Amino acid sequence: KSEVVEPGCRLPQNFSGDWINTANIDADIFINETHIIETWYPDEGRYRKTIYVCREQRDTRVMMARLTVDGCQKDYVCFDFVPQHHNVIRYRKGIAVITDNYHTVCSWVQFPNRVKWKYDLYLRKNPVAVRCPVAGKFNFTQKGDILFETRILGGVTLSPRPNIYCKQNISDFSVCDTDQKEIAIDETYCLSVDHLGRPVDIYSDPDYKMKCIAYWKENIKSYLITFDELDPFSKYRCWIYQRADLNRVLMSQAIGPFCDLKQDVYSTNYTEGAAVHIELQEYERERDQCPMHFDDGSNPWLETENTVKIFTFGAFHSNNNSNKLLSFHVNLLLVFISFFSLVV
């Protein structure tokens, strides 16, 4: 018997697309305006598909009808969504009940783990990098079960690299690209410079490259999600980070795409769901041109991208006195520049 459920509400438009469910990493999620379709591919046996249909919505809670291939009955589940930001949808899911009364299905007592709970995550399947909440050039020390190691991305290099005498090697954590969207980690980085203050080692590549795709603050902890195509265990990694001083940052990387409730910035091993703990100390040199940036994720909806700003200089609202004065000063400055260029 096939059930047909007519949708009674609409999900936010920015929910639409393909997602990964960190609560069930082997499942693919497809969302449109009215449906959430979860397809799970177990290691053995056939795939299982679950369809959620939007029935009723009030504030952040959405009552959805659940249809599965296991039987002919439909039941109802409540989702509590956080407004979407970056490449992540945070949500809680209640227990399934047979009634379709909203006040019963979406009662707060239907959500398990009443005291110790956190939001589950839908991560975008094809994420777009965002500005990293931690940026700059840092020297780091590490401790944990799975440490960052020296390696060559892509295997053997096409041509041999020159032998460089290095007075000091450090572990380097850098977010120095123009948009500050990619983390580069080099476990053994040469810190030496020549007589002009330029770095000597210009041929080495970082050991790890990760894109920042989401960050937020929850349970008084700052969370970061990174994406690494070459990670053999999980392309998505969760981090907890915290600013410890003016130029010192503490971070802990999780084993997988989500952070355990027990994990904090000092977590180092699997007992708290962590892979490694790193302590960052800023060391930007004169020629690095790598400014420091930190965002604790309190407002992840805030636009912090490095964008081009266009100054109108009084082109609009010309009747405003302040704009007229600004335009006059700009014209006066242009006159002085042209005068001095003629003199020279």
TrEMBL record:
Pfam families: DUF7042, DUF7043. It comes from the Eukaryota. Residues 6-117 form the DUF7043 domain. GO terms for biological process: wound healing. InterPro entries: DUF7042, DUF7043. Coiled coil: none annotated. Residues 129-261 form the DUF7042 domain. This is Uncharacterized protein. It comes from Ignelater luminosus.
